[in-house]
């Protein structure tokens, strides 16, 4: 089946691909209307799948795409580095820019794209994903995440306007500043949870503890003094791989010394302290912005940090009139943001306020019906499905809903949801047991737009954001009494506000449920098997329903499936489950394959090194033999020189003796000469005398 809907010629395709996590695509019309968006995980059934998008791109109708927007710069530009006016924790040692560069696998993936590519700054894409769907005429936009390869920024503050576009006021440099997202992920791993996946568990756990000074001191030390060390406790494997799963892995050996530092500290205490630390960090950024004169009544948020619904509540309460969070706030949302960013350059661009994230594949009832009949599943056609579902919920039954297009982003918003009563707190335990989940935050409530003010405090400033379940709010007493299953221990809830205009089916279910029970809200949790993505296809829905032993499944256009009436089918699905690899098995297998490959490469390197060492050793042996031979020759030469030297010494002695003899002979000769000279003088005088006498 072709999953792409019809869309106009000249549309923009947005792509997020990091080679690590959250690969996704989104299609936006020239007018700025999102037409389609999906994360790879929904199709591959691997949570946060970061592999290449080759299969999606292979079936893309390229004749309708004008440009492809990539949510990362094409190349790293370390020269853009600059000081932030809003951050204060500077790294003790500046990071090398080349550590942020994409590997060759990124550029190989880009070769799959057959038309013009536009590379968009990652934080620009995040900002666009929030602002262009917010409906604001102007706003500040704060982005903050773990960063992206080829981009030195991990966040920033932007001034946004419908006419002026999105302009940076301040940007957060990963080469110079510590990231609170890294600290949060580090503590997630330190407490034994999966990094980059279970940070939400820490947020939920925080409400059960209180921040303490001893934890604050630890967090401050890790963040300010040991940031480089805590960052090295986590590392990526299988990056840019087409087959093996990229994963962020904690290093047990490097985490060991930190575990000794938290002995005697409960998980709740550390989680509460971390949450408080992160909230203070973000509020400090916004307070400094106000001092600098960067103000607006409206604030938009995007980036992985703002998957933290409690931080979002603190921001909403810090002085803004309206808050909006990008519904796909994590990196998959940058596919939509990049597409919006590029489409915004066109003359036709006039985006409407975003009220729906039902942007994924939709499946005709014929496909669902054919599959159900093939599987031999009993079902009941419903004349008034909303009435039937409301009645089942009123009786305390659990109903999974599969309708329309799948949601884009991390939240199930009614098209791929599990619904239940919110009147009994015990539903959290029992439903989590069915779904094999471990959660510390209660399920989210679904509430009609008309009832929002009755249930929640100060909902007006976040009502639009709450359509997408991206912020917590304080609950009123009525909500705490009537719907305790959706209220956290701190008195907050993470509601989904439902309108008749934008979500008519669920709105009607809520209306009929309230008329039956008087209760304004029901439980909404994502329809997925433990550690798998939200279901996408009818087959995913059937498998999730039977494997989780839910009570009822409603499939749009088909009808209602009862677990009790299909136990033989359920047994078959459970039997198939035992033969199928779980998400954990797949992840472990990828990790084992990576380690095997790494070990094989290491073994090859060691063998080559051993051969090189053997050759070098032989060279050294040969060299030693040559040196020995030369030493012997030198010793003989030395002996010859010593003998020659002795000869020279003896010769010198002889010469000295002869010189002495010659000197004596010379003296004798001189004496003889003097005697002769005297004799000659005497002879001369004698002759003279004789001559005179004659």
From TrEMBL:
Pfam families, per the entry: Carbam_trans_C, Carbam_trans_N
CDD domains associated with the record: ASKHA_NBD_MJ1051-like_N (cd24100)
Record's protein name: Decarbamoylnovobiocin carbamoyltransferase
Transferase keyword on record: yes
Keywords linked to the UniProt accession: Transferase
MF annotations from Gene Ontology: transferase activity
PANTHER family hit by this protein: NODULATION PROTEIN U
InterPro entries membership: ATPase_NBD (IPR043129), Carbam_trans_C (IPR031730), Carbam_trans_C_sf (IPR038152), Carbtransf_dom (IPR003696), NodU/CmcH_Carbamoyltrnsfr (IPR051338)
Positions of the Carbamoyltransferase domain: 118-339
Species name: mine drainage metagenome
This enzyme's EC code(s): 2.1.3.12
Top class in the EC scheme: transferase
Entry's family note: Belongs to the NodU/CmcH family.
Carbamoyltransferase C-terminal domain residues: 390-558
